[in-house]
From TrEMBL:
<dbReference type="InterPro" id="IPR006963">
    <property type="entry name" value="Mopterin_OxRdtase_4Fe-4S_dom"/>
</dbReference>
<keyword id="KW-0500">Molybdenum</keyword>
<keyword id="KW-0560">Oxidoreductase</keyword>
<keyword id="KW-0479">Metal-binding</keyword>
<comment type="similarity">
    <text>Belongs to the prokaryotic molybdopterin-containing oxidoreductase family.</text>
</comment>
<dbReference type="InterPro" id="IPR006657">
    <property type="entry name" value="MoPterin_dinucl-bd_dom"/>
</dbReference>
<keyword id="KW-0408">Iron</keyword>
<dbReference type="Pfam" id="PF01568">
    <property type="entry name" value="Molydop_binding"/>
</dbReference>
<dbReference type="Pfam" id="PF00384">
    <property type="entry name" value="Molybdopterin"/>
</dbReference>
<keyword id="KW-0411">Iron-sulfur</keyword>
<dbReference type="GO" id="GO:0051536">
    <property type="term" value="F:iron-sulfur cluster binding"/>
</dbReference>
<dbReference type="InterPro" id="IPR009010">
    <property type="entry name" value="Asp_de-COase-like_dom_sf"/>
</dbReference>
<dbReference type="InterPro" id="IPR006656">
    <property type="entry name" value="Mopterin_OxRdtase"/>
</dbReference>
<protein>
    <submittedName>
        <fullName>Anaerobic dehydrogenase typically selenocysteine-containing</fullName>
    </submittedName>
</protein>
<dbReference type="InterPro" id="IPR037920">
    <property type="entry name" value="YoaE_C"/>
</dbReference>
<dbReference type="GO" id="GO:0016491">
    <property type="term" value="F:oxidoreductase activity"/>
</dbReference>
<dbReference type="GO" id="GO:0046872">
    <property type="term" value="F:metal ion binding"/>
</dbReference>
């Protein structure tokens, strides 16, 4: 039997932005999802998205607007109409603005969808109404700051060059779980060229299990490892002095600085042996076609930007940028040159408003004067594409803020998340299968568009339409509010001198890759002088002038002898997919990965309950002993809903809202904790 299909694009916060072929077994329903045709993804998609029908047609999907009828956080709601819901939101926003000024309203969003039209509508409303701005720090800020400090440009070597590499270094990433297409390219290089794979990560991820070498260092010590590697490269004649003289700012100064950053020095900081560091440095320095894929994991520390900058210096010292299959990448997002005026309302004069840090939503909502910047308290919010009650750091403080009686909260969502349970009004949102959007990627170079493949489920509405309907009630005027999503996509593309929406849809995507010289920075790095900066301009005092180990992390102590990291689960994506039965079954339950030696010292066996705690909170999970993690480190994978933890508190109750230096960023892997055995009762 022939099954009808339609084309779409995965909207989730993953580097791959996969093209999709969606089975349509009957009108209004999707079936199995397959990978579409693209040179990078090559028809492969992750298991989560392959069973996307579980999400779209989930029985607990929100399908009608709701109004709270019980205490905040209890989750008791009654159905209302869209007109009633939007009228109340508009009235409460106006009331708040009339009382304390428009900055008392804080629209809050992030990457629950990566489509530019649906994600950005909230920015247009914010700008036109003069509401508080948002610093979008929770994911990529620390990493981006570190990468840009050296290169000055938000791109690197196209991953499609990996089959030409002789060495691939995956540093602070787990593509076997989070970017399967990268593993396919690595496999090609290993088969065709005998390429080596080295993984740098505090614990043995599925990617590390496939590596030729796994360097299990202590969290937050990546800068020390990179400095020791460069020390060896200079010492042993493996540094490309001719390349540095032409393309970098101060190689002689760097060499003098690194004379004391020996492998022995780094071993004491990282927990690796000096021999491991020496061997890795010589392998990297002697392999010109070395490809370094820098992930986000090690940027989630207070010193994450400094660490990432230090790592990004490696191909500049070795000269690997000169060779096909050599160089590095952190994000490819800068290859797309979209004109965003229509999307974000940039054609409207910018009001002078404060910027509130989204990673510090807990302190913001509990009136920390450092965060309110002299302005009024936040008394009204609209949350889209995010679930801060679970995802943001310091969950206890976040929930205290969300539970305030004087805070009006509207949440536009697909499911009754922990955040939605605190809302006064909950609005049902479409999935990507039900609306049109425009997609870029931070893992590849293809620009894509997608049309809806089924009608909206129930009464759900897309972000773009919901914001336009609210704008009408608030008196916010902008041409973008008058367009449907496809019209907006078309106008953005045309303004960007790109094919229009219909043409791009027929093409199936547009490759925006840079030519070799630009991708490898042989035409110059992104700074004004065209040189890579070993000495970055951080813009604040107290940070190292050259690559170094910055000792500002939440170091273990006698009372808190462990360091907690909270890496992703391959079965979830933050809190997305946690509602899907198959994902839950495959993920099992919240689990603490602890070194077998540490378990023995604590009297812990597999399956025992363990309390993990610090001054902020205590959570209870089951333990799994493993030799594949550094001593003194504990990993809890995935952001499970709180109800799945024995004590009712999720992992982010332990994490701090203190920002990474210098530009902010959530420090999810920078938490000192204690561990205690818990009696089953």
């Amino acid at each position: 039997m022939t099954v009808n299909t339609a084309f779409s694009v995965c909207p989730h916060d993953c580097p791959s932005a996969c093209p999709l072929v969606v089975e349509i077994p009957e009108p209004g329903r999707i079936g199995r999802v397959h990978g579409g045709d693209m040179a990078y993804t090559e028809g492969v998609i992750c298991a989560k998205v392959a069973r996307y029908a579980e999400r779209v047609h989930h029985p607990e999907r929100l399908t009608t607007p709701l109004k709270r009828v019980g205490p905040k956080g209890e989750g008791r709601f009654a159905p209302i109409s869209w007109d009633e819901a939007l009228d109340e939101i508009a009235a409460r926003f106006k009331q708040a603005a009339n009382s304390l000024g428009p900055q008392t309203v804080w629209p809050y969003f992030y990457a629950g969808t990566m489509g530019h039209v649906q994600q950005s509508a909230i920015n247009r409303l914010r700008r036109i109404m003069g509401y508080s701005e948002q610093a979008k720090t929770i994911c990529s800020t620390a990493a981006g700051t570190g990468w840009m400090a050296g290169t000055g440009a938000k791109w690197g070597v196209d991953p499609r060059e990996i089959p030409e590499s002789d060495l691939i270094v995956i540093w602070g990433a787990n593509p076997a779980a989070t970017q399967v297409h990268l593993m396919g390219l690595i496999s090609q290089a290993r088969k065709a060229r005998g390429a080596k794979l080295v993984v740098v990560d505090p614990y043995r991820t599925p990617t590390a299990e496939k590596a030729d070498q796994h360097l299990s260092l202590r969290p937050g010590t990546d800068g020390a490892l990179a400095c020791a590697m460069m020390h060896v490269m200079f010492r042993d004649g493996l540094a490309d002095r001719a390349y540095m003289a032409r393309y970098t700012d101060c190689p002689e100064r760097l060499e003098r600085h690194l004379e004391s950053r020996t492998p022995q020095w780094a071993a004491a900081i990282t927990g690796l042996s000096a021999d491991e560091i020496e061997a890795f440095a010589r392998l990297y320095g002697s392999t010109k076609r070395s490809y370094l894929r820098s992930g986000y994991g090690y940027s989630r520390s207070r010193n994450g930007s400094v660490n990432l900058h230090a790592v990004s210096c490696l191909p500049a010292v070795s000269g690997a940028w000169q060779y096909k299959g050599g160089g590095a990448v952190q994000s490819m997002g800068g290859v797309f040159d979209l004109k965003r005026s229509l999307l974000d309302g940039l054609d409207v004069p910018a009001p002078k408003v404060r910027i509130l840090d989204m990673s510090r939503i807990g302190p913001v909502l509990t009136h920390d004067p450092r965060d309110l910047a002299g302005g009024p308290p936040v008394t009204a919010m609209l949350v889209q594409n995010s679930n801060p009650a679970d995802v943001a750091p310091d969950s206890t403080l976040v929930r205290q803020g969300l539970a305030r009686d004087d805070l009006f909260l509207a949440v536009h969502e697909q499911f009754m998340t922990e955040t939605a349970r605190f809302a006064d009004i909950v609005l049902p949102a479409t999935t990507s299968m039900e609306h049109a959007d425009l997609y870029t990627s931070y893992g590849h170079t293809f620009l894509q568009v997608a049309k809806p493949v089924i009608a909206p489920v129930g009464e759900s509405r897309a972000n773009h339409r919901m914001i336009a309907d609210l704008a009408l009630r608030l008196g916010a005027i902008h041409p973008g509010f008058e367009m449907d999503a496809w019209e907006m996509i078309d106008q953005v593309l045309v303004a960007s001198d790109l094919p229009g929406a219909d043409e791009l849809h027929v093409l199936g995507g547009l490759d925006c890759a840079k030519v070799f010289e630009d991708a490898h920075f042989l035409s110059g790095f992104g700074h004004e002088d065209g040189r890579f900066r070993f000495a970055p301009e951080w813009g604040m005092e107290g940070l190292p002038e050259l690559p170094d180990h910055l000792a500002v992390t939440d170091e273990a102590d006698e009372a808190h002898p462990f360091r907690l990291i909270t890496p992703p689960s391959r079965h979830f994506l933050n809190t997305s997919f946690t509602e899907m039965p198959t994902s839950r079954t495959q993920a099992g339950r919240p689990t603490a990965l602890v070194h077998t030696g540490d378990c023995a010292a604590l009297g812990l066996a597999e399956g025992d309950l363990v309390a993990i705690g610090n001054a902020k909170a205590e959570i209870i999970v089951h333990v799994k002993p493993t030799s594949g993690i550094a001593r003194g480190v504990v990993a809890v994978e995935g952001i499970w809903p709180s109800e799945f933890f024995a004590g009712g508190k999720g992992v982010n109750h332990l994490t701090s809202a203190e920002p990474a230096l210098p530009g902010g960023g959530a420090v999810f892997h920078d938490t000192k904790v204690w561990l205690k055995q818990v009696e089953p009762s």
